[in-house]
Specification:
CATH architecture: Orthogonal Bundle
Radius of gyration: 17 Å
CATH superfamily: Cytochrome c-like domain
Strand content: 5-15%
Helix content: 40-55%
Number of strands: 2
Order of helices and strands: HHEEHH
Strand order of the largest sheet: 1-2
Oligomer: single chain
Structural class: mainly alpha
Number of helices: 4
CATH class: Mainly Alpha
Length: 117
Amino acid sequence: MMKSTLTLVILGFTLASGALAQDVSELVSECEACHGPAGVSNAEDVPSLAGKSVTYLREVLDQFYYYERHCTTTTYRYGDRAKTPMSMCNVANSLSEEDKQALAEYFANADPNVVRD
């Protein structure tokens, strides 16, 4: 009985961590729709995220969350939702604390020197 319970707990953690990774990749794709592949932007009005510090990225997301940064309406630049209106304040308000941390860590570790078209 104890062994079965332990197996189920381990399986649950394994499945949960797999689901989390999938969710992070979906969130990353959402960010890349404006900020470019790997967070390297070629648009003047959209900053690159790649290589910025985790602390900086978290601060910026929190500033958008609390409407401390100006939130202009812009459009997605890439992917199947190109030209769809969006706002960073709305995006930031859709993220959990865990999401914000995961995204900050992902883009902080991304290579800012990726060559873009």
